[in-house]
Amino acid sequence: MASGLLGLALLAATLTGCTAAAAPAPETTALSQPERVADIDGAPQDAAIAATCAAVATTDTLLHNARTDLDLGTITGEQHTALLDSVIVTYRSLQVVPASQRGLRAEIDAVASYLASATPTDSLAPFDPDSGEFRALFEPIRLACEENGSELYVFATTGG
Questions:
Q1: CA distances for 116 relative to 68, 109, 142, angstroms
Q2: Angle 2-15/77-96 helices, nearest 10 degrees?
Q3: pTM of this prediction?
């Protein structure tokens, strides 16, 4: 299970363009053993859901930056389409993670199914991330991540 979660984390880091070398692991002692993460209510965080949320945060980051960069004129329509295509690939990739290591299976499958059948936009983007249907399918994922203590964050490439 740990190798699957590590693979999902590596996928998320790869898709966001992370190139920093990993810091050496601190020496582990009985006192420094990591504790199970708990949410505000004290319920244990589900690691499979947390891993899925990390990957979904990557797609949300891609969507945010693609839209912003297109609006600013720093990327072309073709580059925007390529970024949206990478979101589709990420959701397809999440579908093949072993079920025991992937949380929110039904929700991810619903988004992946929508993306596979979406009608391209007038600008030939593979789907419209601002459409009501996409947002409605994404909302249960956002809420489940929040409930799990794995809130989604966007890492913007522009702005303050």
A1: 24, 10, 20
A2: 180
A3: 0.72
